[in-house]
């Protein structure tokens, strides 16, 4: 033991001795020392080859071995010494991980090697052993030194290696390391272009083909090099011109056929990598189609599907096929909405004028350059973002950095005389309550617009018994006896038709939802429908809206995404191209063609959406049990579709039907993260289960091959559409089922609910409904005032009444966000309830509520806009009285309140969010906005009350669906015209919010893992009220003056428990896309060496003057 240790110490010290000997020789170089150096390096090499301890000794920092060796390499002119040293280095760097290589690189080893390489290539033939050593070392260096490629180019080493490859194609021993180095070089885009010009592509193809299982290592390196080279568009064009794409496909097929035991999956993957990069250019995609690439990759992939380890091949193939799938326009005469609503005044620069001034046939242009070639690689994994919900890439640019735009606007933009007209909507402030008489609050009938507003008269809301409510001769409604089932009755389910002419006599059983739903009444609903004005003049009623929806008393978990669903669906889509004869292509529903469907052979489903909030434009049967569905654009627009609501009939039970909505627009959706569509079965409803139910399997959402031209897309680059696909098995024969994006909530339903709510009024409740204005479509926009009647116990009840702070609430500016209406319903029901807290809340505030800011959009099945073709929540800065009446008058109400010193305590606009889970709020804070930017503004002089945080904090403590960590208080530029920001800046409401509710479900709290339902949404609305009640304690000046210091402490506490945000805090700056990417899509660029260092390239472009010491040395040596 001791002897051994001594021996090893002895040898270790021997190496150190040799090193110091070498160091001395380096210091005084003489020609006569050549032999000595040669001998010393030879001895060191021998020791190193035999003992790992010696290697450690040399590589250790303390010995300075690396410096001494490099210094010898730099100084020597002797070939044998050079070879010795290179051998030593190869031994050293082979083991010890990347650590030793790191030391080597940091001591300038890379430059020395490159200089040596270039220097020794000057007098050919080059010494083979030397070249072998140098390249073996460069391969190792390439793993550590990211700048190797650039250094090599600047040293003029690219062609040296390339020439070695060219002239040693049969000499595999030397070829392999040289190729490996070439692979590293070509990962740099500038190098790739230069190497391509020097004929590298052609050389790679000599190595790659024809198929042979010999030297697979070499083949793999050549393929990877080729793949890197093909990332350059210039090289890709060159390759296509030389006909390499069919060659690659042939080689891929050869490998597919011969690699039966799947031992060379990496090689097959590399071939696909080359094809993938080639098809990034338009020319490459064309060559791929011409070479029958779709069928080849489809067939090979289908054969690979059963073997899970071949997934990478299938995924890359699928990616290539999707990319090359010929772009198509939607099968529509125009993508403009089927329905047009003439506007009295069309601003020349507005979207409607632009849309209808577009040259004819603009829709026909399919923009093949869709995702432009430079960015295509990045966008193909479906991570692009659309304009209204900006993604992380653009979000930092979106933060408002202009401090003046964050400060409140102090000027009064409108003269008070103009605002005085709005006094009418605040009659409660001037009313003289006569406390001892029963009070009837005047309410205007909901059908009246502001023009023909009548003076307050008798209560119109009480139904008059002798007035015939309906003219529905075509339908006789009878209650079904308990427990009986009559299938014939169900078969006779006709449509609910409102006009009484020519309708078939149908016997309809109505589920007794009225008993279960206190605010629902089918008869009343029909009555409401009659005064609702739609652009298509609907005469039918959706059964779910008529019967009503009772919340399911059942948990509906968020679906787990099944691996490979998307792939399967995409393959089925690709099959259409490969086996076109299998496709029926039968149009079964078409709003553009009123004569459709022509005949009914009983084999196809029947579709319909001609009822309020319905949105289906066209249905095409593509296979026996598969349908493509197209949604209508928002009226007076050519896009904005995402919301859907339609009816399906004539189904066969027990069969799996696949539905594809093929013109969705958002780039991602919660349908990829466990959200299901909603279905309502009329048979189930009649049998006592009137529920919207989450349904569907094999759900996914992906970019498809339909696109529209950039002109039609309003100047944006041509956009692809997305497919939402889901599969449903119907339970009943001859059922009528409805599908919806989210729980429908129509305008007529709102009117019905308001009537029912007004009936809940008691002597304590002050409830008044006004018509704020008439919409473009001729519907009224209800405005509610809810508070408590003046109390009689107080000394001056009227003055208490009038001093109550105002809370201003609104919802449903975006028609597709029906969840916001359900939250609003919860709020309204709570406010009208008789609980002591509700009474206390009414006594604390005066509520001004606009439950539906966009009735026309809701009625006509729009997703985002009003009839002006515009997003109303982008009009708050400068609303136009004619084009945006609801926004104009809502803002006027707020301006009136401000002008009369009654600026609301809280403003909140309810919304729905399609891409996030939970419920959360957006608020406004100067400080938090400034903190998010790197603007050099001293934040010390910004005084800001932190009260805006209290309400979200309270909600997070009370409402199970609410998530504080998703809240954000940053003011974005793109949101400067939204209600939240304008009410904050212009009206001066500090607590101005957007409350966003998920369409999907929750990932925290009591409802974690569950999809959201109407009862959770309504509960949210009620919890919002309770939070307002608690907020009172923090805001009431009276109570604060009473020195309730503990309350102040509580507020401080509330604020402090939420940590002060910093730049990286996820709690204050929320990414819209907070879901992970899908496993099956991540594998797009699994190649190990395809990183291009853009910074590096940038440096090079900007700075031609060499600045590294390496370069000075090089030029010195060359000139000398
Ligand atoms: Zn919204």
UniProtKB/TrEMBL annotation:
One Pfam family per UniProt: Peptidase_M14
UniProt cross-references to CDD domains, sorted A to Z: M14_Nna1
Keywords associated with the record: Carboxypeptidase, Cytoplasm, Hydrolase, Metal-binding, Metalloprotease, Mitochondrion, Nucleus, Protease, Zinc
Sample GO molecular function, one term: metallocarboxypeptidase activity
Subcellular compartments: Cytoplasm, Cytosol; Mitochondrion; Nucleus
Bias type Acidic residues, positions: 364-389, 1083-1094
Gene3D superfamilies: 2.60.40.3120, Leucine-rich Repeat Variant, Zn peptidases
Renumbered residue ranges of the record's region Disordered: 357-399, 442-471, 1083-1120
Cofactor: Zn(2+)
EC number: 3.4.17.24
Active site: 996 (proton donor/acceptor)
SUPFAM superfamilies found in the cross-reference section: ARM repeat, Zn-dependent exopeptidases
Polar residues: bias regions: 1104-1120
GO annotation terms (biological process): proteolysis
Record has Coiled coil as a keyword: no
Residue ranges annotated for the Peptidase M14 domain, each copy included: 743-1032
Main location per the UniProt record: cytoplasm
Enzyme class: hydrolase
Entry GO terms, CC: cytosol; mitochondrion; nucleus
Catalytic activity: (L-glutamyl)(n+1)-gamma-L-glutamyl-L-glutamyl-[protein] + H2O = (L-glutamyl)(n)-gamma-L-glutamyl-L-glutamyl-[protein] + L-glutamate; C-terminal L-alpha-aminoacyl-L-glutamyl-L-glutamyl-[tubulin] + H2O = C-terminal L-alpha-aminoacyl-L-glutamyl-[tubulin] + L-glutamate
Similarity annotation: Belongs to the peptidase M14 family.
Name this polypeptide is given: Cytosolic carboxypeptidase 1
Taxonomic classification: Eukaryota, Metazoa, Chordata, Craniata, Vertebrata
């Amino acid at each position: 033991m001791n002897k051994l240790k001594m021996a090893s110490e002895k040898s270790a010290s021997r190496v150190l001795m040799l090193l110091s000997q070498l160091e001395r020789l380096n210091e005084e170089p003489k020609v006569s020392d050549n032999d000595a150096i040669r001998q010393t390096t030879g001895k060191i090499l021998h020791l190193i080859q035999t003992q790992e301890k010696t290697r450690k000794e040399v590589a250790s920092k303390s010995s300075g071995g690396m410096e001494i060796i490099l210094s010898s390499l730099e100084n020597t002119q002797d070939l044998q010494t050079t070879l010795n040293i290179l051998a030593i280095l190869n031994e050293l760097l082979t083991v010890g991980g990347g650590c030793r290589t790191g030391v080597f690189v940091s001591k300038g080893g890379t430059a020395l090697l490159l200089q040596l390489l270039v220097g020794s290539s000057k007098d050919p033939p080059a010494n083979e052993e030397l070249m072998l050593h140098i390249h073996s070392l460069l391969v190792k260096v390439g793993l550590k030194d990211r700048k190797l490629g650039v250094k090599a180019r600047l040293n003029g080493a690219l062609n040296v290696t390339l020439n070695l490859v060219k002239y040693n194609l049969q000499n595999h021993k030397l070829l392999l390391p040289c190729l490996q180095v070439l692979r590293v070089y070509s990962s740099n885009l500038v190098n790739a272009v230069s190497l391509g010009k020097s004929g590298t592509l052609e050389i790679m193809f000599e190595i790659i083909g024809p198929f042979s299982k010999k030297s697979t290592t070499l083949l793999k390196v050549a393929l990877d090099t080729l793949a890197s080279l093909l990332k350059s568009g210039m090289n890709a064009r060159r390759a296509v011109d030389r006909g390499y794409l069919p060659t690659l496909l042939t080689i891929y097929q050869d490998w597919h056929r011969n690699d039966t035991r799947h031992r060379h999956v990496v090689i097959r993957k590399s071939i696909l990598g080359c094809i993938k990069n080639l098809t990034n250019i338009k020319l490459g995609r064309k060559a791929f189609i011409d070479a029958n690439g779709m069928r080849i990759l489809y067939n090979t992939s289908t054969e690979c599907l059963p073997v899970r380890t071949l997934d990478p091949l299938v995924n890359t193939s699928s990616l290539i096929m999707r990319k090359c799938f010929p772009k198509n326009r939607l099968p529509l005469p125009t993508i403009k909405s089927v329905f047009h609503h003439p506007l009295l005044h069309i601003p020349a620069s507005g979207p409607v004028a632009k849309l209808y001034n577009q040259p004819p046939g603009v829709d026909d242009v399919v923009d093949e350059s869709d995702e432009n070639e430079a960015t295509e690689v990045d966008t193909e994994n479906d991570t692009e973002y659309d304009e209204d919900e900006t993604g992380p890439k653009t979000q930092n640019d979106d933060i408002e950095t202009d401090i003046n735009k964050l400060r409140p606007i102090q000027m009064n933009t409108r003269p008070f005389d103009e605002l005085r007209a709005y006094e009418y909507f605040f009659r409660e402030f001037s009313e003289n309550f006569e406390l001892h008489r029963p009070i009837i609050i005047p309410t205007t009938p909901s059908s009246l617009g502001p023009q023909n507003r009548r003076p307050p008269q008798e209560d119109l809301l009480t139904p008059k018994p002798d007035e015939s409510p309906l003219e529905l001769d075509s339908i006789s409604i009878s209650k079904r006896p308990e427990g009986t089932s009559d299938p014939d009755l169900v078969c006779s389910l006709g449509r609910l038709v409102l006009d009484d002419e020519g309708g078939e006599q149908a016997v309809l059983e109505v589920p007794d939802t009225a008993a279960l739903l206190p605010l629902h009444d089918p008869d009343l609903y029909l009555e409401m429908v009659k005064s609702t004005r739609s652009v298509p003049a609907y005469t039918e009623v959706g059964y779910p809206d008529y019967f009503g929806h009772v919340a399911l008393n059942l948990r509906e978990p968020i679906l787990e995404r099944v691996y490979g669903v998307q792939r399967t669906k995409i393959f089925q889509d690709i099959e259409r191209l490969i086996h076109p004869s299998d496709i029926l292509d039968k149009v079964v529903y078409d709003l553009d063609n009123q004569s459709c469907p022509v005949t009914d052979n009983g084999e196809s489903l029947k579709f319909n959406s001609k009822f309020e909030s319905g949105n289906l434009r066209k249905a095409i049967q593509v296979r026996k049990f598969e349908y493509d569905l197209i949604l209508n654009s928002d009226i007076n627009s050519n896009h904005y579709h995402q919301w859907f609501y339609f009816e399906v009939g004539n189904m066969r039970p027990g069969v799996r039907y696949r539905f594809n909505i093929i013109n969705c627009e958002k780039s991602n959706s919660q349908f990829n993260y466990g959200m299901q569509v909603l279905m309502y079965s009329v048979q189930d409803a009649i049998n006592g289960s009137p529920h919207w139910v989450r349904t569907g399997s094999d759900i996914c959402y992906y970019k498809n091959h339909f696109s529209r031209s950039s002109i039609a897309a309003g100047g944006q680059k041509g956009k692809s559409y997305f497919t939402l696909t889901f599969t449903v098995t119907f339970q009943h024969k001859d059922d009528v089922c409805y599908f919806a994006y989210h729980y429908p909530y129509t305008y007529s339903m709102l009117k019905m609910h308001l009537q029912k709510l007004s009936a809940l009024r008691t002597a304590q409740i002050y409830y008044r409904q006004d018509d704020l204005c008439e919409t473009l479509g001729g519907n009224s926009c209800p405005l509610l005032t809810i508070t408590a009647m003046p109390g009689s116990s107080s000394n001056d009840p009227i003055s208490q009444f009038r001093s109550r702070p105002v809370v201003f609430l609104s919802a449903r500016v975006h028609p597709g966000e029906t969840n916001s209406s359900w939250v609003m319903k919860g709020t309204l029901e709570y406010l009208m309830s008789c609980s002591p807290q509700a009474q206390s809340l009414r006594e604390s505030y005066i509520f001004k509520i606009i439950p539906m800011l966009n009735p026309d959009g809701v009625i006509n099945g729009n997703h985002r806009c009003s009839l002006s073709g515009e997003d109303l929540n982008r009009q708050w800065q400068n609303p136009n009285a004619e084009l945006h009446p609801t926004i104009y008058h809502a803002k006027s109400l707020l301006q009136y309140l401000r002008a009369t010193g009654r600026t609301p305590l809280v403003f909140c606009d309810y919304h729905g969010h399609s891409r996030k889970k939970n419920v959360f709020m957006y608020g406004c804070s100067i400080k938090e906005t400034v903190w998010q930017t790197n603007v050099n503004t001293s934040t010390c002089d910004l005084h800001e009350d932190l009260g805006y945080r209290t309400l979200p904090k309270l909600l997070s403590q009370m409402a199970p669906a609410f998530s504080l960590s998703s809240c954000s208080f940053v003011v974005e530029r793109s949101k400067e015209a939204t209600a939240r920001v304008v009410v904050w800046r212009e009206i001066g409401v500090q607590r101005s919010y957007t409350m966003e509710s998920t369409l999907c479900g929750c990932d925290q709290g009591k409802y974690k893992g569950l999809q959201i339902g109407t009862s959770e949404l309504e509960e949210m609305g009620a919890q919002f009220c309770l939070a307002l009640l608690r907020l009172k304690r923090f805001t009431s000046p009276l109570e604060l003056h009473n020195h309730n210091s503990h309350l102040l402490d509580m507020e401080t506490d509330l604020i402090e428990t939420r940590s002060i945000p910093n730049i990286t805090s996820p709690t204050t700056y929320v990414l819209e896309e907070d879901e992970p990417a899908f496993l099956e899509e991540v594998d797009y660029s699994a190649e190990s060496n395809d990183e291009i260092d853009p910074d590096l390239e940038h440096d090079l472009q900007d700075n031609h003057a060499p600045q590294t010491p390496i370069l000075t040395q090089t030029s010195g040596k060359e000139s000398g």
